[in-house]
Design brief:
The protein has 322 residues and is of the alpha+beta class. 29% of the residues lie in helices and 21% in strands. Residues 141-145, 151-158 and 171-178 have low confidence and may be disordered. The protein binds N-hydroxy-L-asparagine. The record marks 185-186 as: Cleavage.
C-alpha cells in the first residue's frame, strides 16, 4: 500500500505504480516513496512541496525532506536545502552515500552538487509575487534596509515577526503563521510491500515567510515521519515548530508496538501535542505493518489523505477525507 497526507494524488499514483513494478512490490518501497514524492516536487504539488512555494522572509524557497527505511532504521535527511529542486532524492543520497543522517543548508547543497544534482534557483513568479505582496504589507521605515541592503527590497524595510510561539498564541501569531489546507500541505508518505517492508518519507518547502534558516519537523525522524518494520509507520503534518517538540510519529509507532490500534496510536501522537498547545492544528497518520491505517486530526475542518491498495472493486487509488 501507499498512503500520504493531503491530496497529493499524482505522487501517490506514481508511488503505487513504482511499487507494483515487482510482484508484491518487493524491494520497491524506497523507490516508491522517493519517486512518488519526487513527482510532487516536480509538479510543485499544492505549491507546498518543491520549488516555487513558501518563500522565507528574504524571499527564498528552501526545502526539507527525509526518507527512513523501516528494516535497517537508516535515515537520510536534508534541511534548509537551497537551490536544489529534488530534496527527497538528495535525502536518499545522504542515506545511501554517507555515514551521516542529516545535512543542512549550503553544505547540503554542496553535497548534492557533488552527487550530480543541478544548482538552480527555487524561485518562480509565484514565490516572488507572494513574497513581494507580503513584504508590501509589512513595510516599516528604517529597519530592514540597515540589516539587508538588498536591492530586491524596494518597498522599504519591514519589521520581521519576532514573536515567540506560546501555547496560547500558537496559530494566532499572525495570518502568515497560520497553517491550514489553504496555505500549507507537506507531503508525508508511507509505502509497505508484500513482505511488510516499510519506508516513510516527507518533503516540504516549510512555512511561508519563516525566518531564514528555520527548519520544521518534516526532516526530523520521529517528528515528520517514522518507520519500523516490526510495527508500522507514521507521518505528521501541522506546525513543525510545535510538532518537533513532541516527536508524535515516534510516539504513534511506539504506541502500536505496545499493542494500540493505528487509530489509538495516531490519537496518542496528536493528544500529546494538544496537552500543551490547545490551539494546535495538525494530523498524524498511523499505519501498522499489515497496512491497517487511521488518521487523527485536530483543528482543521477537514483533512484528506490519499491511499492506494488493492481493492476487489473500485479504484486502487482514492482520496479519503476525515
Ligand atoms: C512545517 N510540518 O514545515 C511542516 C508544515 C506542514 O502541512 O506540515 N504543513 O512546519
Amino acid at each position: 500500500m501507499v498512503i500520504n497526507s493531503w491530496t497529493h494524488t499524482e505522487g501517490n499514483e506514481h508511488a503505487w505504480h513504482v511499487l507494483n513494478r515487482t510482484p508484491g512490490g518487493l524491494g520497491e518501497t524506497r523507490n516508491a516513496v522517493v519517486e512518488g514524492i519526487t513527482r510532487c516536487e516536480k509538479l510543485q504539488s499544492r505549491l507546498s512541496v518543491g520549488y516555487g512555494g513558501s518563500p522565507d522572509e528574504l524571499g527564498e524557497t528552501t526545502l526539507d525532506a527525509m526518507i527512513m527505511d523501516g528494516a535497517t532504521m537508516d535515515v537520510g535527511c536534508v534541511a534548509g536545502l537551497r537551490r536544489i529542486k529534488y530534496a527527497i532524492r538528495v535525502a536518499r543520497h545522504v542515506m545511501e552515500h554517507t555515514r551521516h543522517s542529516m545535512l543542512v543548508g549550503d553544505s547540503a547543497t554542496e553535497f548534492a552538487k557533488s552527487m550530480g544534482f543541478r544548482d538552480e534557483s527555487l524561485s518562480t513568479r509565484n514565490s516572488t509575487d507572494l513574497w513581494q505582496q507580503w513584504i508590501d504589507s509589512k513595510c516599516q521605515p528604517n529597519f530592514w534596509r540597515n540589516v539587508y541592503p538588498d536591492p530586491k527590497i524596494t518597498c522599504g524595510p519591514y519589521k520581521p515577526n519576532r514573536t515567540s510561539i506560546t501555547p496560547e498564541k500558537e496559530n494566532s501569531v499572525g495570518k502568515e503563521h497560520t497553517i491550514g489546507p489553504d496555505n500549507h500541505d507537506t507531503i508525508g508518505m508511507i509505502a509497505i510491500d508484500g513482505d511488510n517492508h516499510i519506508h516513510a518519507g516527507t518533503s516540504t518547502n516549510g512555512l511561508s515567510y519563516k525566518i531564514s534558516g528555520r527548519v520544521g519537523d518534516s526532516p526530523i525522524p520521529g517528528a515528520g515521519a517514522y518507520a519500523d518494520n516490526e510495527v508500522g509507520a507514521a507521518t505528521a503534518t501541522g506546525n513543525g515548530d510545535v510538532l518537533m517538540r513532541f516527536l508524535p510519529t515516534l510516539l504513534a509507532v511506539e504506541a502500536m508496538r505496545a499493542g494500540k490500534t493505528p487509530a489509538q496510536a495516531a490519537e496518542i501522537g496528536i493528544r500529546r501535542v494538544l496537552k500543551h498547545y490547545t490551539n494546535f492544528f495538525g494530523a498524524v497518520i498511523a499505519v501498522n505493518r499489515l497496512g491497517e491505517y487511521a488518521v487523527s486530526c485536530y483543528g482543521w475542518e477537514e483533512f484528506s489523505i490519499v491511499v492506494s491498495s488493492p481493492l476487489k472493486s473500485g479504484p486502487n487509488t482514492r482520496i479519503e477525507t476525515v
